[in-house]
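== Sequence and structure of one protein ==
=== Format: two labelled lines per protein ===
==== Data for this protein ====
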Amino acid sequence: MGQFKDITENGIWKQNPGVVQLLGLCPTLAVTTTVVNGVSLGLATAVVMAAASGAVSPVRKFVPNEIRLPVFILVIAALVTVIDLLIHAYALPLHKVLGIFIPLIVVNCIVLGRVDAFAAKNPPARAMWDGFIMGIGLTIVLALLGAMREVLGKGTLFSGLDLALGENFKHIVLTVIPDYQGFLLAALPPGAFLGLAFLIAAHNWAEQRKTNKKPTATPPASESLKPAH
């Protein structure tokens, strides 16, 4: 259980792919115009990462080292195709919004990197959990960035929820700032860069505070009594 706890802490905080490793910046900056878009792509990535890690781990000893990367990419591509077809079948409007970024999960360095660095060296249970948690860590970053850009850009929250869950959820959209004219910069790519920079700064600030709060080691009493030269 301690290993799973470490994996969870690394994926969510210490090695978060969005604000620490800075992987997958293309979808992070392009899709996060709303919370719904960010969470949808993040969850799709988490499912692909968990499934890819679970598929690679059992056969890791049978794949020659020389062709491991092409094999891993084929596994990821097959899983992404399944996810892409499912979203196309059951959430067509959302599929149109996310567009090319769903197939691009195949070449997302987060997925291939974790499969090669962790799943190929660990048992299936730990590999699947690592892939899923890394995906959830990315989803949290996408959700926060999407929320910031949506509130500043449109003054709403959860807009487009009907694209993912159907027309019955259209009324859940929250108007955070009534009669808001919008802030165009937040909806454009520069707003994504600024928002991500803010999240990285907040993470680093929290880490710095955590480090500063750690008690410093006190010297032994015998050493503290020695006369200064």
In short: DSSP finds eleven helices and two strands in the chain.
